[in-house]
Amino acid sequence: KYEDADFNKARALLFKVISQNPEDLRARSYLGLSYEALGKDSQAQKLYNASINSESHYKEWLVGRKEIIERKQARTFLRSRVEEIRTSNTELKKRSVVVAPVTYHGKKGKYENLAVGITAMFNHALGKINTLTIADQYDVELVSGIIQAQSDSELRDNPIAIIGKVFYSQTVIKCNFDIVDDRQIVLDVGYWNLNSEGLPTTKTYLAPLDGGLAVIRQDVVADLLAFLEKSEEQPFFASRIDKNAFTSFSKGIRNYLSNEFADGVDQFESALKDNPGFELCSFYKSQNERLLNASQTPAAAGLAYPSSPAGIGELHDQTFRRLQWPP
Predict the structure, then answer these.
(1) Which residues pair with 175 in a beta bridge?
(2) E-assigned strands of the chain?
(3) Could you tell me the pTM of the whole model?
(4) 12 SS3 class
(5) In angstroms, rounded to a whole number, what is the distance separating the alpha carbons of residues 34 and 37?
(6) Rg (CA), the chain
C-alpha cells in the first residue's frame, strides 16, 4: 500500500504488523515513511529514534532517515533562532565552535567549490577534539543564507555574531582564501571570541595548493587550541592532500550539502581514486552514502529483511552536534 501511495491504508496495515511483531524493523521503517508522506515528521522521527537502538543492518538506514528529517526541519527552526536573537540574550558556551562558511576572494570560478571543502576539512578536524562542540556545516550554511536574505541591515552587518549566537558558540572561525598562480593557497583566518568586544585574532597561512592543505589544517587546529587556551594533544592527520583529489572532494561536499547524494558519490569516489589514503574524503563518502540510501525505501536501497545479515556499511560516530529542535 505504501508503494501505491495509499499512505493511510499502509499506516493501518503496518500498525497491525508491528503489534504482532514489535521488532520488525522493516515494518517500522515503512511506517515511518508513511508518517512522513502524511506530513507527520515528528511521529516518524520518534519512531526512527526508538528503532535505532536495535542492532541491525537497518540501523544505518534509520539514522540516515532521521538526519533527512532534521535537514527538512532545520530551515524553519534556524530561521526562528535568527529571529529569537533579536529579542533575547544568548549564553554562549566556551567550548562550542562554529566554522563560518569559508569565502573565496579570487576571480577563477574553478576554485569556488574549494570553499566548502576547506570548511568541511576544518569541521572534521575540530570534530576529533572530544572537548569541543562543532556546529554542523549544513546548518551553518543555512543560517548564513538566512542572514544574507534578511532585509534588516543590523543582521546582515553582523553575520559572525549572529552565526555564533544561533549555535550558542563563543568562538567563531572565519576564513577567506585566494589561489596565487594556480599553485599557492593564501588563507586568512579570524578567530573571534564573541564574549569580547575586541577585534578577532587574525593570522595568514600560506602553503602549496598541491599537498599543503594538510599543513594548514594542522596549523589552524593548533592555533585555535592556543586561542582557546587549551593544551590538548592534537588529533593525527594524514600528511598530504592531493590537489586534484581535494577539488573532487569539494565538489562532493557541495553535492552533499545540496542533498544531491548520487552526484556526491561520483565525486568522492573520484577523489579517493586520486588519493586513496584520503581519510577526510572517506568519512564524508560514508555520510553521503548513508543519506543516499536513506533517501530511498528499504527495498530500493537493497535492504534485506531484518533476519538477514546483509548490511549497508559501518555506522560511523557522529562528529558534529546538531541543535535539537526544539532547543
Answers:
(1) 189
(2) 93-99, 103-104, 133-134, 169-180, 184-193, 201-208
(3) 0.87
(4) helix
(5) 5
(6) 21
